[in-house]
Amino acid sequence: MSVTITELSEPAPVLEPVPETEGKEEEQKPDAEPEQRRSMKRRISLADVEMYLRPFDWFGSLRAKIKHKKILSRLRPAKKQKKMGGMSDELRRALCSNSMTSMDMEFVPDLIGKSELLTDDIRKKLCKKIPPRVEGHPWSLIFSSSEHGFSLKSLYRKSSAYECPMLLFVQDTDEQIFGALCSTPIHMSEHYYGTGETFLFTFHEGFRTFAWSGENLYFVRGSPDGLEFGSGDGHYGLYLDGDLYRGRTQRCLTYNNDPLTGSTDFIVRAVELWALT
């Protein structure tokens, strides 16, 4: 009896099926990063937009506030015009404007006090020469030799209560009227004071004014012994002594003026000082 020996061969390896998920995960991994980046880009872009929008929001709120204030200012009642001498500032500007001058309309300032020297013609002519800042202001009589006596100290005392330009009128025994405008109150001082608005005037041989020449700054100086307007080389444009009795007028450097009356030395007949309040 014969025995057949059959060679045993090694069993073939069994291949386990590969899960489909593993392959898919490997396939999805490369696409995961771009998706994350895209989400990050979206977040960054929104933040950038908010950052750019914030200034516009701030400007918008500021613009709204400004518009709100303008509306409130229009709704508020206008402030009342301050009156000076019974006349509003608007009316004063209108009366003294260039348009009215071109229409040959002459404005005469109101007088507070009774004058022995001033006429309407004098007031009209001087009104055109006074500083613009006091145009249309009433003239208040603060000193009169007929009422307060011939005393320069009394004149200083009366003018000390005012802070405004002043007009000094002098009449000599020849009945000539002349004087000066002082841009500041007249007072006693060791030094000269005033500004280039100060000038001399006269009605002798016609109305004339003499403005500051620019040669020096000797406008006005007051002392117990005398009151002088303009000086230079020992000459005075207008000088009055302490008793308001004698005076002198000469050509001086400050105003380069002619004598204000017929003679260099004169006797005072009347003096008036007006404040342009």
TrEMBL record:
Organism name: Amphibalanus amphitrite (Striped barnacle)
Any single GO CC term annotated in Swiss-Prot or TrEMBL for this entry: mitochondrion
Localization per Swiss-Prot or TrEMBL: Mitochondrion
GO BP, one annotated term: response to oxidative stress
Protein name, per record: Oxidation resistance protein 1
UniProt keyword NADP, yes or no: no
Keyword tags: Mitochondrion
Annotated segments matching region Disordered: 1-40
